[in-house]
Specification:
single chain; 202 residues; alpha+beta; NADH Oxidase; five-stranded antiparallel sheet; globular; Nitroreductase-like; oxidoreductase; Nitroreductase; nucleus
Length: 202
């Protein structure tokens, strides 16, 4: 196994959900943009549809996202649950930035003739988005940033579209919260044995 392969796998293995984040960054905004752009150009997609769309929210726009989330969630929680939820949303808001991952179904429209695959398109878009999320997350952690992935869609979708004039066809799938880690990083998680997770058929 080459050194490059080991480095890549180690970077993925070291990635953690980090929730204690400050409103600082270990890299410049220009470097953040560069990484996201490189991921968009490098990550694969079904039929090379390149359907992933990414929006970076910085500064007041990042904080606005979590105001939107607070408003959207409020009718669904009460009492102690509301307190816990608000504390969690405050922590996200106190981080440095948010990265929104969307999928655009439009690139799949020319594939409508592939009837035997049509019911798979939605799943393929989610797989594509997952690959982009993992790559961005891993790359940013390698740069010293902490991150955690959230899913407040569909509660926030409409307000997000209106606030930032997002194409109405784009489907919001995830929100990556990033910032400089505060305190100790999370410990490695226990992994299940490979015995029931892996086979070789020769």
């Amino acid at each position: 196994m080459s050194a490059t392969t080991n480095t890549l796998i180690s970077a993925v293995a070291d990635r953690r959900s980090v929730y204690a984040l400050s409103n600082e960054s270990t890299i410049s905004d220009a470097r953040l943009e560069e990484i996201v752009q490189k991921v968009l150009l490098a990550a694969p997609s079904a039929f090379n549809t390149q359907s992933t769309r990414i929006v970076i929210l910085l500064g007041n726009n990042h904080r606005k996202l979590w105001d939107i989330a607070k408003t959207a969630v409020a009718p669904h929680v009460s009492g102690e649950q509301a307190k816990a939820t608000n504390a969690k949303l405050d922590a996200f808001q106190g981080a440095y930035a948010s990265i929104l991952f969307f999928e655009d179904p439009s690139p799949y429209e020319p594939l409508a003739g592939f009837k035997m695959y049509a019911d798979k398109f939605g799943g393929w878009r989610e797989q594509t988005s997952g690959m982009h999320q993992l790559l961005v997350w891993t790359a940013l952690e390698a740069e010293g940033l902490g991150a955690n992935v959230q899913h407040y869609n569909p509660l926030i979708d409409e307000e997000v579209r209106k606030t930032w004039n997002i194409n109405p066809k784009w489907q919001l799938l995830a929100q990556l919260v990033i910032g400089k880690p505060v305190g100790d990083l999370p410990l490695p998680k226990d992994k299940k044995s490979l015995e029931d997770r892996y086979r070789v058929i020769a």
